Every structure is written in structure tokens, then in C-alpha cells.
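Marked as duplicate of an earlier ticket. Keeping the data here for the record.
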Amino acid sequence: MARKAGKARKGRTATVIHLPAEDRTTSPYTGYTRAHWETAADALLAAVEPWATPDRALYHLPGDHVSHSGRLSDGLEGYARTLLLAAFRQDETVLGRYADGLRTGPGGVWPDVTDRGQPLVEAASVALALRLTRPLLWDRLDQPVRERTAAWLTDALTAEPWPCNWELFPVTVGGFLLEIGHEPEAARRAVDHGLERIEDWYVGGGWYTDGDGRKYDYYNGWAMHLYPVLHARLTGDDKLLDLYGGRLEAHLADYAHLFGGNGAPLHQGRSLTYRFATAAPLWLGALTGRTPLPPGETRRLASGALKYFLDRGAVDGRGLLTLGWHGPDETVLQSYSGPASPYWAAKGFLGLLLPADHEVWTAPEQPGPAGRADVLRPVDGPNWLLQSTRSDGVVRLHNHGSEDVRYDPHYTRFAYSTVTRPRTTPPDNTVTIGGDHLRSGIVPLGVGEDWAASRYTVTSGARVTGLVVADGAVEVRAHLVAGAAPGTEVRITGWAPGGDERSELLPVHGLSDGHALTGVPAVTGVSGGSPTLFVVVARLTGDPDPAPLADLVTVEVRDERELTVHWATGRARRFRFTAPGDGPGGTSWSVTPD
């Protein structure tokens, strides 16, 4: 397979990606081997080289998009993130180019590391890369260059991070400075402080929230686990590695379920333009031996993610990663996204640190969870229910515990999948009460083998208690609305299909027949004078000829408080909505399964 790049600036030779022939013997699911990863890394590094400044200290990638940190910081980001890719590739020639940049960057053209500034993020990438390649890069630098670089990095030890995964950037810098003996006391304080901070956010089961609140997404894998586990391994601290490696192992047991049969990661959370950075924790588990996954499954999931994006236009005609998901797509960007931001996808190449004869590269690929069987998997920390179907490889995430209103709609919708993306107008997978669909202040109410529940309050003061029950590809969604004025319109929307998938929404109780809002199925009803229950059956499926929804499930509703779900398989589940004193004015509704 080949992709030809367009002309780089100043008439320089364009980059061409020529991936090796697929190997369907060793890799029956993706065809990708270590050679594909090496070739992709080499091509990405070659493609960015023409965009370096003459001194190679900054990489100003093309395009009009500038992050809120400004062009200079964006140029540093281009250097640091592609340096990290070069570090995983361990190519002495390429690393030599980055050595040139170190001669004029730190203490020169690079912006200073300051409180809550983007250079703090990039300092961590520089420090980690230098630590991983010390014999190939750091040890070969002239002493004045080392001194200026260490001095520039030192500011990261005391710069105030944002209270989230940023706390791990001083840890990463501190680990490197400790190793080289520079400012050891300050470095040790920074490491200890950052590691203490993430303890506040560990919720168990291998999951962290990314700072205060309930912010759960891929940052768990490519930041909250990546930095402390790598630090423990590089330091040789077995006690730390037992702690953080054990958490990683627990996390990967859930994480493996977040990839669809076509290799796609779930389209949920922020910074989605990092794309196959999703492979990083998979490789990290293999690198440290702290993984529940067989080697062939690890490679299948990681290679599936890389292949998914390369096959769908993530790299443009110049060989550059675009700001987007498949191709360019501003809907997945944040204000901090600059032209080089996608190159945190470099983390996905962590597996190249494993030797070519490691079993993760030599074992035959094995299917991931979405390719083995239909799965319903509760995830306690985030209060998610994961639902996947083998026949179409679709993974669905039912969200009853994760939110970050700054990045709505990528956090606060009721459901996400590997084949759809959140719609803004009209909003998908929402409950709208009197025109208000914003879901914040989510209170998780529990998750079980086939269900999840939560509650929240809308701006008007109306309270919504939501429940999902699933089987196969079918979902029963129930929403109890309390505190809304009688006659207030309640609208429920379903999945916004992203391709050939079929999205269905069938009203069951309290709602009128369904209709579509610009491709998003919707049903409507009105609130009563007391808490009112609304129930729908939903389905997102890639199967070409699925059985009718009405043949797969029936729902009985009793007293607006209780519903029983009868599946065609003969299984039945009963749930009751309760409040303190079980009175109509209760404000803290819960859901109780029988």
C-alpha cells in the first residue's frame, strides 16, 4: 500500500509512504507486523523534517490553525512530539537532527516553561525522549548543550501544572533530571509531589479521573498510566512498578474492550486527534509484563488502531498527520490544539521499544473482545456499561458517570460508539427537557452485568434519573423526569449513524411515535404533574438484516416507578425507581435492580 505526499514547501522532495505487503499468516486480522510500524514511524518523521526551522529547534507545520498558546509554542510542540516518536524509533540518524535543535532551542528560541503553560507539556516529552535515548543522544551532546537543556527543563520542576494529568509532567522531567544528577533535591520533590497528587484521583479498578470531578477517557491510558509506569520502570523501582503496574494491568482488562472489530477506538473524550496514541497502554503492558492480554491480542488491538486511521486519511498528501479524526475535522479539536498536536500519536509507537523477537511481535494475532463474542461489561470506576456485538464489531459505551462540560458533547452524552460521533445539532443520545439537553452534575447510581444508571439536574431544576438495560445490540433506556412543570416537552434522541449502520428508536412508554431530526431518531412526550417515566428501545447495528426490535424485547411499566424488561431469550429483569420516603417530591431518586 502506498500514499504519495504532495509537494513540501520550498520545492523540497515530498514524502511517500510505502507500507510493506500485508502478512496475513502472522497477522490474520490486520496484516500488520513490526515492519509496518517501523515504516510508518520513518515516514512520519521524514514528512515533518522539511518543516523544521533552519536550526531544527522548532517545527512549524503548515496550516492556518494556531493554538491558544501561539505559534512559538506550537513550533516547540512540533519539535517535542516528533522527538518522542524518534525516541521510540531509536534511529541514530534521525536523533542527530534533534540534537541539532537542542543546540539552539533550550535557553534560546524555545519559550520558557511557566505556570500552566504549554511548554510544560512539551518539556515532559523532551525529558522522556532524552531518558529513553540517553546513550544515543544525551551522552553525545556537548557539555554546554547539556547544561542549557537541563536548565530549561529545571523550570518544569516548579512550574504550576493544571490540576489534572499535567501533574505528571514535572514527574517525568524530574525523573530524567534525577538520573543525570541535576538539581536532585528539587527533582525528587517534583516527582514525589506529582505522584502524591494522582493518588487523589485514583478511584480503583485501574481507573483515574483526570483531575477533580468525573473526567474519564483515553487520558487514563496515554497519560495517567503511561507516565508513572514508565517512570517506575526506568528508575528500576520495583515497589513503584508493582503499584502502578498493577493498576495498569487492571485498567487493560477494561481498556481492551474499547476497540471495535474494525480497529476503531471509541469516539469519546477530548484530544481525539491523538488517534493511535490509544495503542500506548497496550504496548506499555507488554513492555512491563503487567498486562492480562495475550501478546497476539495486544498487537492485534494496537495494529488495528494504526491501520484504522492510516486507511481513513489520517495522513494527508504531504505525509503529515492532520488536525482531525479520519481526515481534517475541527469538531474533535480543542483550543489547545495546534498544527503539531496530532503528533502525540507518537505515544502509539511505544511498542518499538520492544525487541523484534519479543513475543508481542512474533505471536500470531488473536481477536480482541469485540471479535470474540457479544459482550456486556460493567466498568465500576466511570460507571460505564460497555456493549459490543461480534457480528458487526460495534462497541457501544453507555455513559452513566463521566462528564466534563468544557468538552461537551464528547463527555456528557448517554452513549458513544466506535462507528458514530457525537452530533451537535441536533444532539444525539440526549434527553431534552423544555429545550435543555445539557447533562451535568452526573451522580452515578450503579452498574451491573447488563445495566447502568445515573441521575442529574437540568438548568430548570428538573431532575432526570436514567437507566439503560442491554442485551445483544438492543438497549432499553428509561428516564424518570421529576420536578418539570406539567406539560413540559421531553424529547429523547438515539444514535446518529456514521456510515452504513442502522439506528432505531422505538417509543415504549410516555412517548409518541418516532421521527428523525436531520438523521438523528427522536421521540417526544410531555411531563405530568408528578414524576413521569419515559421508556424507549434503541439499537445501533451494522447487521444488514436485523430482526425487528419488537420481536426482541418487551417492557412492562407499573405505577411510573417500576419496569420489567422481557428479552426474547426468556430472560427478564426488573428495576424500580425509588426516592427517600418514596414520595413524589423526592429529590434523590435511585434505581434498584431486583
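See parent ticket for discussion. The radius of gyration is 25 Å.
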